Amino acid sequence: xxxxxxxxxxxxxxxxxxxxxxxxxxxxxxxxxxxxxxxxxxxxxxxxxxxxxxxxxxxxxxxxxxxxxxxxxxxxxxxxxxxxxxxxxxxxxxxxxxxxxxxxxxxxxxxxxxxxxxxxxxxxxxxxxxxxxxxxxxxxxxxxxxxxxxxxxxxxxxxxxxxxxxxxxxxxxxxxxxxxxxxxxxxxxxxxxxxxxxxxxxxxxxxxxxxxxxxxxxxxxxxxxxxxxxxxxxxxxxxxxxxxxxxxxxxxxxxxxxxxxxxxxxxxxxxxxxxxxxxxxxxxxxxxxxxxxxxxxxxxxxxxxxxxxxxxxxxxxxxxxxxxxxxxxxxxxxxxxxxxxxxxxxxxxxxxxxxxxxxxxxxxxxxxxxxxxxxxxxxxxxxxxxxxxxxxxxxxxxxxxxxxxxxxxxxxxxxxxxxxxxxxxxxxx
Length: 429
Ligand code: FCB
Fold this sequence. Notes:
Order of helices and strands: EEHHHEHHEHHEHHEHEEEEEHEHEEEHE
Number of strands: 16
Strand content: 15-25%
Number of helices: 13
Bound molecules: beta-D-fucopyranose
Number of domains: 1
CATH topology: TIM Barrel
Distance between the termini: 8 Å
CATH class: Alpha Beta
CATH superfamily: Glycosidases
């Protein structure tokens, strides 16, 4: 591929989430879940970023990033139902101001997997009440930070959240129920729409700019056995529902889950100003008529002939897939922000290859006409990878969890070159 220059103003940076980096997130449902021994290891102090955010943002700035994605922690901001903490809000004002001072555009997620305990105790996202609670929280956050923040993401990976917490039960409240899962998706769609309008209402009353989306987890679902009709059927259904169906519902207000009636989840006004896309790799599906709403089970990437590379957690590594998922956004004619893409590995050269190879396919998607406006690597620093704990290393920057020392990896420097020059050098191979 010849040298490629990214569009002017391209957003370059990395992403994190509050619970995974801040430490001592004691009022959240994930914290309680960890204390109950449900994970490989508890999050504890994490990367202590609640204290060290300025130092970490210095590193991002030194790596030529011009944007940074983070989440604000609902359980800190609203520790009791209806009571907002001035202290937590002041903290996040310092955080976004620190980003701005370093020339980093803040991209703020309002929900990234964790909830205040009071909400989870009342049924969490399976309770319709969450819609109003979330909108009230969104309003409060935007009133407090909206002069500093233009890019908002309501919910991180609504589909993954629903699967992990209400179907696979690997996060709080640990449910494994298809009806609960479907209710959660409906509430996420409604809460996203309510949050979207809440953000805009505040911003337009104040004369602030706001661009609102969510971080949509997109993954191609090829069949395990390429020519097997049932595997192909399962894969197609999963792809339509999980990827396109969800985006479609966000835009049109109509949500259709196969075998269920179509549901209206908002008034039909589109509720995305840009599309946030998280991409990690493909998931191969084998048909299964019981026990999975996707009519399929994941098959292991271990022996699959089409999988040529894996990350530390055995997830498929497939750079061309990023072009594929970006092309799904074409019909919406909206700017697309890659809100996450990354790899956990013990081999930093693999990380460097991962980033450059994905960026080459992003470049192709741009050549195809997809209006990509930025790329955020997951993650700035190694962090708490949910049920898997601290073993997987996703960071551009290594964290020593004993001393909290940071060490910039070579892959980070290579990525910094791209960020600094806004260009990918020629590639022969
Ligand atoms: C994404 C999540 C993020 C992190 C990465 C590895 O699905 O949004 O929190 O766990 O995976």
